[in-house]
Amino acid sequence: MYVKRQKGWEIPERLATPESVYLNRRQILAASGFGMAAAAFPRLASAETDPSADLYPAPRNSKYTIEREVTPEAINTNYNNFYEFGTHKNIASAAEALPIRPWEVKIDGLVETEITTDFDTLIRKMPLEERLYRHRCVEAWSMTVPWTGFPVAELVKFAKPLGDATYLRMETFMMPDVATGQKQIWYPWPYVEGISMAEATNDLAFLVTGAYGKPVAKSMGAPLRLHLPWKYGFKSIKSIVKFTFTDEQPVNFWQALAADEYGFWANVNPDVPHPRWSQASERDLTTNDRIPTVIFNGYGEYVADLYAGMEDQPIYM
Ligand SMILES: Nc1nc2c(c(=O)[nH]1)N[C@H]1C(S)=C(S)[C@@H](COP(=O)(O)O)O[C@H]1N2
Ligand SMILES: [Mo]
Predict the structure, then answer these.
(1) Contact indicator for 317, 269 with CB cutoff of 8 Å
(2) Domains (ranges, CATH) in the chain?
(3) What pTM did the predictor assign?
């Protein structure tokens, strides 16, 4: 059979887990006798009553299909970094306490007019699509996620930033009574991240509202999180409540905590080790295999240009 040699992001669809595996997960669970699925997975029940549930599944953008198998939903929703709910990976049940409605999103800073909008109003103004993206954590594990969402560029268009805005700063909720990790005062809460305007308007930069064909799980950053597949995972801030357009480079959560280990740009590069470990390879959570890490996590053709002439800056930490 003739197989066309393809670029990293255009690997054949057949190599990705078929949609039915996750879109029909509920049917599969029911058919296999897991009639108590809603009790075993309380999130499935809440996803059904989510006011945005009718928006899923969204059409898949076939430009972003990839070579790896989609990571099973149960792994993805139960192996998380979400320090607001604990410093370990097993935060899924604690995160269920997060109230995600009503959810206000504020847009401020260097914009024509400040906007405060309800999440459900915002999402219905955005063109939702599904994309398969690789995710590479700075801790050297990775997974493949069927996200649903819209390009950050669409949010930028909606926000109408002023010409002097050069960065987009994003902030997570602050609710220490619910997210008890936020009571640990040695962390610089709330979680903050930032990207340049050139990055924000790059087509790959994606605001996530869903995953696995339904509203995104709380453990994965409901109702609105970022995903930047060419950067280390910590850039992909969860449960966003505020977008601020600014002319100052934001200091992110991990930078504020340990600037010698975590930088602003954080682009994936196997040849630039973290001060305490190698970045040359990663553990794929889907297969548990150790696989080589690729520069820009394999998305260089989209984003390498963004960093031309910036060799004097720490773009890989
Ligand atoms: N608000 C917030 N966002 C966050 C984090 C966090 O602790 N808090 N962890 C980051 C890190 S280190 C990673 S790897 C990803 C993990 O996303 P996942 O749990 O959906 O895999 O979220 C990122 N976004
Ligand atoms: Mo991470």
Answers:
(1) no
(2) 13-307 (3.90.420.10)
(3) 0.87
